[in-house]
Amino acid sequence: MSNKSFQTPKGTRDFYPEEMRVQNFLFENWKRICLLFGFEEYEGPTFESLDLYIEKSGAEIVGQLYNFRDKGDRELALRPEITPTLARMVNQKGPSLKLPVKWFSIPRLYRYEKAQKGRLREFFQLNMDIVGTDKIWAEVDLLTAIIEMMQGFGLTSEDFTLKISSRKLLSAYLDRIQVPAQAKPAVYSALDKRAKVGPEAFQRLLGEAGLVPEQCRDLEDFFTCRTLDSVRERLPDAAGEELAWKEALAELDELFLCLRNLGFGGFLDFDLSVVRGLAYYTGVVFEVYDRKGEMRAVAGGGRYDNLLENLGGRSMSGVGFGMGDVVLYDLLRSKNLVPAFSDRVDYFLVTFGEMNCEALLLAQALRHKDLRVAYAIAGGKIKKQLSQAHECNAAKVIFVGSESAPPGRFEVKDLTSGEQVFRAFEEL
Predict the structure, then answer these.
(1) What is the model's pLDDT at position 1?
(2) 217-224 CB contacts, 8 Å cutoff, 24+ apart
């Protein structure tokens, strides 16, 4: 016998039955909203070609995922996200797909990063995407789904906020202060880290991206804007720049107006600090946070115009988001919104001695009536079997082969009230 003791790998979780009930609670609520909004479920492989992720996010992504070479000498990676898989699948279908595509998935994902509160190396994430339209109504649909979903868990506008910004708006401002196009990805990455690294480190990142002190000051001034009106005050003079600027503002105006008309104004915040680090975002971007700001983002996403084309498909716009199970669970637990689950059994069959065919036939017949039935596999003393019935939270016990029961009837005990009666099979 080995003396070795094995533990879960760092950053992973075991799901015992009680934890699995919570996971199913999250998944069922996610799926319910997705279906109500007309989304269809999809799934892909747990591992993909490593090049798929490099093509989407750059070579630096390799240090953030689990990659390996298989026996066929192919470079593969466990999926750190499912959006590239979505893009590949849509591209493979090509013109045969009816647009827009509204798909959702709840994949298990893997990222090689420091395991800490709210972030693990293996986790589940709801993804909802709309591909094939550039209309702002797609963002409205997704943001409405997020709010309805969070409300479905019992959360209110006092518990969470949906922070909204625009990569298009930020890009137009970077054009105004003459930041070269090739420097923008590094600037976006720096801005995404702004709240995490401190002022000095942030200025250093901007300098590494190629910004001079005057551009840094202009950017800081821009980030003091707290409303769309304050952004309008900084409208550029050049006509070409003004067009992109106005388009971005018009999108945000329409988005906020529509969501407020739906009664969701209390959930919304215009927040230029929402940038999203990924380079492929091109339009509206958003993140969901707890109101106290004590946790990581519960969800995040935005508009991507070039992803499918960059991965070998047609030019097609899309918008989507991901919501992780780890932070969501932490938020629900902090608000005492995780229900106390019980895995209730309808009937527990107690036999007098060993398990027998009579009990098995009865169990089979009850299960065909969609009733949940358990029994003591090894039989044993009545007291021990009744103890097992309580442990599995059975509603009632049937004493199979009871000498007290009249012919054609079963002796049944209600474990809540203690009432003991005789019932025909049809009455069970």
Answers:
(1) 64
(2) 218/177, 219/173, 219/177, 219/191, 222/173, 222/272, 223/194, 223/272, 223/273
Burial letters 177-195, b for 16+ CB under 10 A, else e: bebeeebbebbbbbbbebe
**Count of H helices and E strands in the chain?**
15, 17
Report the candidate in 422, 318, 400 with the shortest Cα–Cα distance to residue 356. Answer: 400
* Residue indicated by tokens 């499912």: 82
Distances (CA, A) of 120 to 11, 20, 46, 67, 290: 5, 17, 17, 17, 19
Burial class of residue 241 in the structure, from the number of CB atoms within 10 Å of its CB (0-12 exposed, 13-18 middle, 19+ buried):
middle
Paired sense of beta strands 299-304 and 284-290, if any: antiparallel
Q: What 8-state DSSP symbol labels residue 99?
A: S
Residue 342, pLDDT score: 76
pLDDT computed for residue 145 by the predictor: 98
Give the Cα separation of 146 and 267 in Å (integer): 11
DSSP letter (8 states) at residue 406: P
**Neighbouring residues of 280: CB distance < 8 A, sequence distance ≥ 6:** 56, 57, 304, 306, 307, 310
Give residues with Cβ within 8 angstroms of 403, minimum separation 6.
Answer: none
Dihedral over alpha carbons 368, 370, 374, 377 (to 10 degrees): 30
* Placement of tokens 């880290």 in the chain: 193
**Cα-based angle 322, 88, 278 (whole degrees, multiple of 5):** 45
Beta bridge partners of 68: 76
Weakly modelled stretches of the chain, pLDDT under 70: 1, 235-241, 277-278
Residue 189 has a pLDDT of: 83
CA distance 355 to 375: 8
CA 348 to chain centre: 37
Contact call for residues 145 and 128 (beta carbons, < 8 A): yes
The residues, any chain, with a CB within 8 Å of residue 229's CB and separated by 6 or more, are none
- What are the backbone angles phi and psi of residue 405, rounded to the nearest 5°? -80, 135
Burial of 254 (0-12, 13-18, 19+ CB in 10 A): middle
CA 10, 13, 19 angle in degrees (round to 5)?
160
* Residue 208 CA: distances (Å) to CA of 68, 174, 175, 204: 32, 16, 18, 6
pLDDT the model gives residue 240: 53
pLDDT at 216: 86
